[in-house]
Amino acid sequence: MFCHLRPVRRLFLEKIFPHWFLYSRALSGAEAVNALRPFYFAVHPDFFGQHPREREVNENSLKRLSAYLENLQKPGFKSLKPTQLTFYIRETDQNSSGGQEPFSTYGFRAVKFTLHTRDLLSTVLYILNSCSLSTEHIQSLNTNVHSQSLKEAKKMSDRPIKWDKSYYSFTGFKDPEEDLEQVSRMETTLTSWLDNNGRSAVKKLKNSLPLRKELDRLKDELSHQLQLSDISLFCYFQGEKEGSGCTIIFTDRSGMSAVGHVMLGTMDVHHHWTKLFERLPSYFDLQRRLILLEDQISYLLGGIQVVYIEELQPVLTLEEYYSLLDTFYNRLLESRIPFHPRSLRGLQMMLNSDRYAPSLHELGHFNIPTLCDPVNLQWFILTRAQQARENIKRKEELKVIENELIQASTKKFSLEKLYKEPSISSKQMVDCCKRLLEQSLPYLHGMHLCVSHFYSVMQDGDLCIPWNWKNGEAIK
Questions:
Q1: How far apart are CA 116 and CA 79, in angstroms?
Q2: 123-132: per-residue pLDDT in tens?
Q3: Among 15, 21, 213, 419, which residue's beta carbon has the most beta carbons within 10 A?
Q4: Measured between alpha carbons, how far is 444 from 151 in angstroms, rounded to an integer?
């Protein structure tokens, strides 16, 4: 019925992209992920912790986008149904002046676009252009993609396709707008959700126990063979001898992270890992220089400590983080702004490349832009120093209360494990646990409970609940 649309779509793409561009070297899955890094950083749900509705929309859209990209890579696929997506985009250094929808007071805006592309490259370009994100970095991924073609790609319309309701009735496809409306209308209660999902979680947990046991056995065996001190369940392990005390993380690219963890790309073949291990001495040398650079910055700023907080910052390589520090340090040297020696000891600051103005985080650390004006920086830090110390003190007090409430909740509900996502603050966890202790929840007996931003049953049976439910109903 709709086959006549295919040549129209093909003609449209040929007008937008040059003929040779349509047949340029196809991106691999790993290259597509790398090319979409700015997009993932702008929409990642963990950055919407204070906005559960927007977080949930982004999570749902990311799942559908992942399925779309996965289908594009399947051999022999002919065409995909148009997929309409909605994302809330955070303000970053790339999109703050994009000229599209204005940012809200919370620093994000909604973007809607419809995917109707036929390959990874055009899909990546279309997503980045729709979100007003740069596409210049893609030139290094595909030698056939020149600057002119990227400029022409930006002309591609980001206006969503509006299909008649009869299209969804005839094809059986889901209407994305109805999905989004359903998300906004849903008022899931904690007790009703546990009633509907408790048995499923128990079954999954029971099925996962043999695998967990086997995992523990393999951890012990690997620790003995490689002389490791520990192997974490969260996909990294720490070595004391062979790895010089390194933490190794399995991720999507190889190298060393900003905090000194050795990253092994899961898409790389093992001989690439071997080459990486051979380069470890040079990485350790760069790490020592990085620590020295942090100390020099600290000295210039009155003793404030420079920190890198993985949960609150994008994943950077050691080289990328060193470059940020070096740029910031040179700006400080040029300005020579005066700080009394050691006057800011006990305070912390975190460098950001996607901000334009300094800010004070509720946890007590300063968020400082790499290109911040030094004079404004001095005024901001000095006027907020006392508030920062109060925030740090409050954070430490909340951490003590949080640990006590976790123990009390674990005991009351006979939980096997109670934990939280890294993006959940101590304040949120305290609020959640206090209200949990007022409830009677028999389904939690013997379960693994994770406090998150949404409801979910994980594959291994762990239960995820939002921190901000109230009287059994999620807060809006």
A1: 9
A2: 888 898 888 8
A3: 21
A4: 55
Residue 275 CA, chain-centre distance (Å), reads 28
Asked whether the CA dihedral 189, 192, 195, 197 is positive or negative, the reply is negative
Count how many residues are written for the chain.
476
Which position has the token pair 């003590």? 400
Please name the amino acid found at residue 445. Answer: H
* Six token digits for residue 451: 């406090």
Residue 422: what pLDDT? 78
DSSP code string of 163-216: --HHHHHHH----HHHHHHHHHH---BHHHHHHHHHHHHHHHHHHHHHHHHHHH
Q: Quick check: helix, strand or coil at residue 458?
A: coil
* DSSP string covering 402-443: HHHHHHHHHHHTT-SEEEE-TTS-HHHHHHHHHHHTTS--GG
Q: Please provide the DSSP assignment of 324-392 as one string.
A: HHHHHHHHHHHH-----TTTTTT-EEEEESS-SS-EE-TTS-EEEETT--HHHHHHHHHHHHHHHHHHH
**Residues 417, 458: contact at Cβ < 8 Å?**
no
Burial class (CB in 10 A: 0-12, 13-18, 19+), 321: buried
Could you tell me if 464 and 458 are in contact, meaning their C-beta atoms sit under 8 angstroms apart?
Answer: yes
Whole-number Å distance between alpha carbons of 79 and 18? 21
DSSP 102: P
Contact 463, 201 (CB under 8 A): yes
pLDDT at residue 265 greater than cutoff 80: no
User: Quick one: CA dihedral 245, 249, 254, 255, positive or negative?
Assistant: negative
Q: 50-67: per-residue pLDDT in tens? A: 677 788 888 888 888 888
Confidence check: pLDDT of 425 > 80: yes
- Would you state the structure tokens that stand for residue 237, as one six-digit string? 């392990």
Give me the torsion for CA of 140, 143, 44, 318, rounded to 10°.
-30
- For residues 73 and 120, is the Cβ–Cβ distance under 8 A? yes
pTM (2 decimals)? 0.55
